[in-house]
């Protein structure tokens, strides 16, 4: 039985851990410093508490990191400080360059690095969510998810290739959602929102519904998307492409961050009205 250390069981991470368990792996997590909600998710997913990070590292054959992108490098450093020598999978929404930097950190400590990127929501049924993997040990990691709800896909190329797939995908999905929200905010600020929505119904009949959905689906998670948009912007800049669009998307999500963990998402009018900051 392969033992996987999962860092950390948030909404996505706990579902990844449950999928690995469905494939027969033993999955550990470290409860030290984690909140009640995280503990509840870990228990519901059947994860075993190793207590502290050092014990988790010492007992794991592989470690899978699923955390907000701005915490990914520090988490890799924390694991490397314990001289982890197994397979380290960074499955976070980071730029290819960031993924390669994480690889250097954990490999200097003795680990084998696999780059990863998750596309889709928390996996419940197979075929809905994919874990893209790249690197020399990618096939070994993919074998840990052969039958459960999470589908693993090996991407040709070394570390950074899987992250590039994730970045390109999210650049559109979360980028265009931010743009739609900003367009509604502009119309509200100028007092023409009703007219715009009426025009959309005539010429772009799906946009009004999509703009409402963008608010409903993204406001409570907007705080997580700030770092992701910044990683995407950095990837565009590295490729010699304009990065301003996704820097702006990061700011849009930053202004929506106050709705983190709200019981109910705001209406489009409420969220978009809060976006505009008059100069």
Describe the structure in brief.
By secondary structure, this protein is α/β, with parallel strands linked by helices. It is 52% helix and 14% strand. The chain contains twelve helices and eight strands.
General description of the model:
It is a single chain. By secondary structure, this protein is an alpha/beta fold. 52% of the residues lie in helices and 14% in strands. The protein has twelve helices and eight strands. It has helices at 11-22, 36-44, 53-59, 72-80, 96-108, 138-142, 161-189, 193-203, 207-218, 222-238, 244-256, 268-275, and strands at 3-7, 26-29, 48-49, 62-65, 87-90, 112-119, 129-134, 150-154. Helix 2 links the parallel strand 2 (26-29) and strand 3. The protein starts with a strand and ends with a helix. The model has no long low-confidence stretch (mean pLDDT 95).
């Amino acid at each position: 039985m392969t033992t996987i250390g999962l860092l950390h069981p948030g909404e996505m991470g706990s579902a990844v851990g449950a999928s690995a368990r469905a494939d027969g792996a033993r999955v550990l997590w470290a409860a030290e410093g984690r909140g009640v909600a995280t503990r509840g998710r870990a228990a519901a997913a059947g994860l075993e508490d190793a207590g502290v990070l050092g014990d988790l590292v010492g007992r794991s054959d592989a470690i899978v990191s699923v955390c907000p992108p701005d915490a990914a490098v520090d988490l890799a450093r924390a694991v490397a400080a314990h001289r982890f020598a197994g397979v380290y999978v960074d499955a976070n929404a980071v730029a290819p360059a960031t993924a390669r930097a994480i690889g250097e950190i954990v490999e200097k400590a003795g680990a084998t690095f696999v780059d990863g990127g998750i596309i889709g929501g928390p996996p419940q049924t197979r075929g809905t969510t994919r874990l893209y993997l790249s690197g020399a040990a990618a096939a070994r990691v993919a074998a840990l998810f052969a039958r459960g709800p999470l589908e693993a896909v090996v991407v040709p190329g070394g570390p950074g290739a899987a992250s590039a797939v994730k970045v390109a995908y999210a650049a559109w999905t979360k980028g265009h959602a931010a743009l739609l929200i900003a367009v509604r905010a502009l119309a509200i600020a100028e007092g023409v929102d009703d007219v715009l929505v009426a025009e959309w119904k005539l010429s772009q009949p799906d946009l009004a519904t999509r703009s409402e959905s963008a608010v409903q689906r993204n406001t409570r998670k907007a705080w997580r998307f700030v770092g992701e948009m910044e990683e995407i912007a950095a990837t565009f800049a590295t490729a010699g492409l304009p990065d301003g669009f996704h820097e702006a998307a990061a700011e849009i999500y930053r202004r929506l961050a106050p709705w983190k963990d709200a019981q109910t998402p705001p209406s489009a009018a409420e969220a978009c009205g809060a976006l505009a900051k008059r100069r």
